[in-house]
Amino acid sequence: MLRTLVASLVLLPSLVFAAQFEAGKHYEVLSTPKTATPEVVEFFSFYCPHCRAFEPFAQELNKSLPKGQKLIRNHVDFLRAAPPEVQAELGKAFLVAESVGQGDHIADAIFNYIHQQRASFSNAHDIRSLMLVNDVPAMVYDAGLVSPKIQAEAQAVKDRQDFYTKAEVLKGVPTLIVNGKYQVKFGELDSAHFQQQLNELVAYLLAKKD
């Protein structure tokens, strides 16, 4: 009996949060079509300070997703902080890092390089140097950049960016979209329980049938 009661108390906050989620308050219902399969898509930029602040939450959210699901991360190229080609190259570098299981590590390194060290990337060579310094082997990185898999993923990132921009959904970063139909409103989440409520809201939207 005691064990059952303790388990119930542990689950209570998440159940309360789920019961309180409201369209228009915690999330927006978009006019874009719902995806055929569940997905969680994030748009972000390494140049965005808000994205840097959100990064730990994004990483924990990714770990909380149901088995078989992952956070589909899209690095945008439209911020004024750097030329679009440099931003696109950073996006591809991140995709290579993800492909070898170092996505979180490299994301932290790039965010730190830009926002903590106040350094900048002038070209693809600068980005490559950072990758090598952060334990991505040169052969792995160079091969990854030109692989059909990474090229296809980079094009998919660009296509998603263009699609949601044209739909007037993607107006800034970070932006989090669930099932192509629901956009999370970060400002309405409880700051004292932000991670838990974010995880619960995304799980709620993933399972939403309407």
UniProtKB/TrEMBL annotation:
Record family assignment: Belongs to the thioredoxin family.
Protein's recorded name: Thiol:disulfide interchange protein
Keyword annotations from UniProtKB, A to Z: Disulfide bond, Periplasm, Signal
TM regions (residue ranges): none
Domain of life from the UniProt record: Bacteria
Domain Thioredoxin span(s) in chain numbering: 8-203
Pfam families recorded: Thioredoxin_4
Endpoints of the signal sequence: 1-18
CDD domains documented for this protein: DsbA_DsbA
Main location class: periplasm
Subcellular location as annotated: Periplasm
Species the sequence originates in: Rheinheimera marina
